[in-house]
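Q: We require from you a single protein entry containing the residue sequence and its fold in token form, and nothing else.
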Amino acid sequence: MHGETNSKSSYRNLIYTALIAVAVVSALSFPQLFTQIGGFQLKKLIVPLLQIIMLGMGTTMSLADFEGVVKQPKAVVIGVVCHFIIMPLLGFTLANSFDFPPEIAAGVVLIGCSPSGLASNVICFVAKANVPLSITVTTISTLLAPFVMPALMTLLAGQFIEITFWKMMLEIVQIVILPVAVGLILNRVFRKSTVVLNKVMPLISMGGIVLIVAIITAAGRDSLLTVGWTLALCVLIHNLTGFTLGYWTGRLFGLDEQSSRTIAIEVGLQNGGLASGLAVQMGKVATVGLAPALFGPIMNTTGSLLATFWSQRPPKSHNPTQADTLIANGVAPGLSR
């Protein structure tokens, strides 16, 4: 049964990746379809879509998501600290290594400073990694984002574009914290009803992210045609190096195989949606938003391949947990993010 549910999750992730690829190709081929309808600019949908996705995340969260802090504090600290050190520094290094225009370089730093990717829990499940640890690290990094992201962007991206710490902090609170808080309240007040919502939200989240990628790709089509392949290479290096450094940092600090796989996935996967939303708020979705838009399909492809590779090599200590069961049934936090 576990092998069957594992295959189902791999299949869902494959469909998701394929849909994003179709969205990118469609937006590059027919950009007019994804820029405006009538007089309405479609980029105005990005932030509301993100808020709906984060609301869904909130409806699936509970105090159990923080159990990892108590049960495995060392692994949680390593995961969160590695994520907010490795990826931002990699982004900064790559942005300075490639000859990108300043705003596109700032986008590379922005995706590096983002919290953990919203699909990381599912990737960890398929990879037979430590799912409870993944849920805890994703949750904590997301809640820390309003404080950590503006600080990192001010420090690392200030040479490319102007960053206003407090403005970015408030924008992240609006995009992430407030919707998550509302979701938590809904989960608390309408506990039985949220079970149905948790099954619907994965589809809504998937559709929302696919549409966001298409809108950003269409908006930045001209820039993509100029630096697209170079930027894609930069993003791929960023992603793969994140996986590698995350895994070996976990091993260096004495974590077991399952937890080290989790750190690799949590470090390598970024919340491209949040980064895209911030690019919209800056008014630079066609430039700063490009790296986040490319990071999504690339990380889902490489993450799926890595998870499939690891799924065929289960660690000796692997035992399915309650979190594994929830994700297999499509109602765990990761699937609705």
